[in-house]
Recover the amino acids of this structure.
């Protein structure tokens, strides 16, 4: 091996030693059913030092610790909800990527529904808006003309 | 070109932009043709000046002129040429310069090709473009100058983040910006129409091509970003509901709504004031997207305050653009003439409901993205809003929309017959039932299988009803072949474009549902010579070796994947870039038509020469890219419609106008 090769090799070794990649084989639980639960729970938990990454996908050391913690709780017999509650106790509400329904998150959860209903109401009103609301701009002759036209239309509709 | 010339050209572009906005506005107000005529040449001059500035910065990057701070901070001599060039927009200052460059090109295009536009509308639209340009130019010149020098010049640059050194990400920002800036045209026309006090079918026809072009670029731009995340981040996810992704997705949603509501204005002169509002909102959200991504505000409100000059400037620009246009809207919109009436079951209603769902979805994504900031600002505590929230609220909004997409194109204007349409769609309903049954039979009956199968059934509905609608228009299988061919040729390109884009959406839904439901993975440690099986692929690890890239060292794993008789080689890499020293993961992806086999080389070697290996089977992921390409392509087909080219020159009410005024 040439000297540069050795240097590169050393550089690699030092860098790779710190590089972790999401879930590592040595973290995984032996029981596939329990491991599957751990994965599902992990996807709802935020790596608290990362920007919007779940602990399931994060490479951070802290995320790894959190993944281990989740698995410990599962092995201890906690249900999925109990694991999440345990994590919230330790790290606060910040850790949940699906915020709980509380007074602080009321608008977050109800907002989309309110918008849809409000929008539907406005759309319905638009569709059912009256034909002409304002005749005040029209001159007297024009009003007479409108009346004649409306009578004609009524006549044709009833035939 | 030298950087000072670029800087000078940019500084000169600012007064030119002000001239482009103020003089034509006065001219349009006074109906002075000479003053209005200033807009065109000013727009062309602005393009030349900003183009010169952009060329100067690009030149500095290509020549690795490290006396320019921006080049020093974002480039390196060992970088391949492509990434030296993409480094121009791979940073805050340069990306803003790209933004105004595209704006200037679009403005010049209106000036050069807008001969069919009424003089006053054209002058006012160009004036608004000039105002936007002036705002951005001032922001660049006063807070984010890309041409600053350092003395003495460093001998070497700091390099570009290796994650950005990638073909997908090299073209991602220009595509997004073509989209964002394209929406600025719709915005300018909307503000110009409000100033004029009239919106009609002709107006919609001028706005639609810009909206279509912007939408197509934004679609492809978002797709490129997603594709990049998929192959570069190393675990096969393709959408994360990350605030940065949402920032581009929100204007896409409202832009899609705008695209559809403009049709109603064009055909029926209804929904005028709503369409104007959508144009304003879509561009405002594009502005928000541009700034949010680079300001740091998405991480925390406090990060935003770290650079107060930029932050305050951004807020002022946003307040002026959004506040100004909305105020004008509030004053003028009530005076717009109400358009044609329509029944609750009609094409207009269908498009209105489309808009209802799309804008609610956009507002929901915006709410979720900003909620942590709102909560922090109001001291409601620190909380996170991530993918589980967005999936919970977004999917229920999309399902009815897609159901409607199957029916909408068949609805008649004014009044339509739902029973008749459903009768014509019996074939689609049958296809849905068959596909759903087959999908369940092949996958299983677990909850994920049902969800995945339902997604594919939904896609089948959209695909087959789009096909039936298109077949009905060209009388496929009903007329003589020559007659069918004649109909295909005479059908407006906009109709073909819609069919292709809607079918692309169906393909995309297959990709989304299939990959979410049936992804398989195997994470393990392997030594050379060992095998692992994933989804029928027998994967053999042949070892790993160090190789030298142009500006990185790489540990390259060698795998062969066998299924049936054939075998393919897979070479995932872990790269360590020289400058800055940073590691990236290059997944090896083998794509069949239906699925990807995705292999990543993880940690290792351990003392006993083992490596962590992640092997994923990603079913239907290629469908995401097919679908997105089809959608973008559908937009371009629609753009080529001759109605846009000949541009509906005469306004119907042109004769009546003097009487009203």
């Amino acid at each position: 091996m040439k000297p540069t090769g050795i240097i590169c090799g050393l550089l690699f070794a030092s860098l790779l030693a710190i590089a972790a990649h999401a879930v590592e084989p040595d973290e995984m639980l032996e029981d596939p059913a329990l491991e599957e639960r751990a994965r599902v729970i992990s996807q709802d938990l935020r790596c608290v030092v990362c920007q919007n990454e779940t602990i399931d996908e994060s490479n951070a050391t802290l995320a790894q610790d959190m993944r281990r913690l989740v698995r410990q709780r599962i092995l201890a017999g906690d249900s999925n909800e109990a694991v999440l509650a345990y994590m919230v106790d330790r790290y606060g509400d910040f850790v949940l990527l699906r915020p709980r329904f509380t007074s602080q998150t009321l608008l977050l959860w109800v907002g989309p529904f309110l918008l849809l209903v409000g929008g539907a109401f406005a759309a319905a009103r638009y569709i059912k808006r009256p034909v002409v609301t304002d005749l005040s701009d029209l001159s007297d002759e024009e009003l007479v003309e409108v009346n004649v036209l409306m009578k004609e239309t009524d006549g044709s509709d009833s035939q | 070109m030298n950087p000072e010339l670029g800087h000078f050209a940019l500084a000169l572009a600012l007064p030119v932009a002000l001239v482009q906005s103020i003089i034509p506005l006065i001219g349009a107000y006074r109906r002075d043709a000479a003053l209005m005529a200033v807009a065109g040449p000013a727009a062309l001059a602005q393009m030349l000046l900003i183009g010169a500035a952009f060329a100067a910065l690009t030149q500095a990057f290509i020549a690795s002129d490290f006396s320019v701070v921006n080049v020093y901070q974002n480039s390196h001599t060992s970088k391949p040429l492509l990434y030296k060039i993409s480094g121009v927009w791979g940073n805050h200052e340069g990306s803003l310069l790209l933004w105004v460059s595209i704006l200037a090109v679009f403005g010049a295009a209106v000036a050069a090709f807008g001969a069919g536009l009424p003089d006053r509308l054209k002058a006012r639209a160009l004036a608004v473009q000039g105002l936007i340009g002036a705002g951005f130019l001032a922001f660049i010149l006063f807070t984010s100058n890309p041409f600053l020098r350092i003395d003495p010049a460093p001998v070497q640059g700091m390099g570009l983040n290796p994650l950005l050194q990638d073909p997908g990400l090299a073209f991602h920002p220009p595509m997004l910006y073509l989209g964002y800036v394209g929406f600025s045209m719709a915005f300018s026309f909307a503000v110009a129409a409000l100033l004029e006090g009239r919106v009609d079918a002709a107006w919609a026809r001028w706005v639609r091509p810009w909206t279509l072009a912007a939408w197509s670029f934004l679609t492809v731009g978002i797709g490129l970003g997603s594709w990049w995340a998929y192959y570069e981040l190393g675990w096969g996810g393709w959408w994360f509901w990350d605030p940065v992704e949402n920032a581009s997705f929100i204007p896409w949603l409202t832009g899609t709504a705008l695209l559809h509501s403009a049709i109603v204005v064009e055909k029926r002169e209804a929904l005028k004031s709503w369409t104007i509002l959508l144009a304003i909102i879509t561009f405002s959200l594009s502005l928000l997207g541009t700034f949010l991504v680079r300001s740091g505000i998405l991480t925390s409100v406090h990060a935003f305050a770290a650079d107060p000059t930029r932050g305050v400037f951004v807020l002022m620009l946003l307040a002026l653009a959004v506040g100004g246009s909305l105020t004008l809207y509030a004053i003028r919109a009530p005076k717009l003439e109400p358009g044609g009436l329509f029944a609750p079951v009609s094409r207009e209603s269908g498009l209105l409901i489309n808009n209802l769902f799309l804008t609610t979805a956009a507002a929901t994504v915006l709410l979720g993205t900003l909620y942590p900031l709102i909560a922090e600002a109001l001291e409601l505590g620190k909380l996170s809003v991530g993918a589980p929230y967005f999936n919970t609220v977004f999917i229920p909004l999309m399902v009815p929309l897609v159901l409607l997409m199957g029916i909408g194109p068949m609805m008649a204007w004014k009044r339509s017959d739902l029973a008749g349409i459903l009768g014509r769609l019996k074939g689609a309903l049958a296809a849905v039932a068959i596909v759903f049954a087959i999908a369940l039979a092949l996958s299983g009956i677990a909850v994920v299988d049902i969800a995945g199968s339902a997604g594919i059934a939904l896609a089948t509905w959209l695909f087959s009803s789009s096909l039936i609608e298109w077949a009905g228009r060209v009388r496929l299988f009903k007329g003589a072949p020559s007659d069918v061919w004649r109909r295909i040729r005479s059908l407006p390109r906009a109709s073909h474009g819609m069919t292709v884009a809607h079918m692309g959406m169906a393909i995309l839904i297959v990709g989304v549902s299939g990959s979410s439901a049936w992804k398989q993975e195997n994470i393990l440690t392997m030594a050379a010579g060992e095998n692992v099986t994933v989804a029928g692929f027998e994967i053999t690890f042949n070892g790993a070796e160090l190789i030298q890239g142009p500006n990185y060292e790489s540990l390259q794993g060698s795998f062969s994947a066998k299924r049936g008789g054939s075998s393919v080689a897979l070479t995932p890499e872990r790269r360590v870039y020289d400058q800055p020293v940073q590691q990236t993961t290059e997944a090896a992806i083998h794509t069949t038509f239906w699925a990807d086999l995705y292999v990543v080389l993880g940690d290792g070697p351990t003392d006993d020469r083992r490596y962590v290996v992640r092997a994923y089977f990603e079913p239907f992921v290629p469908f995401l890219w097919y679908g997105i390409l089809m959608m973008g392509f559908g937009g371009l087909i629609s753009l080529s419609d001759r109605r846009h080219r000949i541009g509906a020159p005469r306004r119907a009410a042109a004769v009546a106008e003097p009487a009203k005024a």
Notes: Chain B touches chain A through 57 residues (CB under 8 Å).
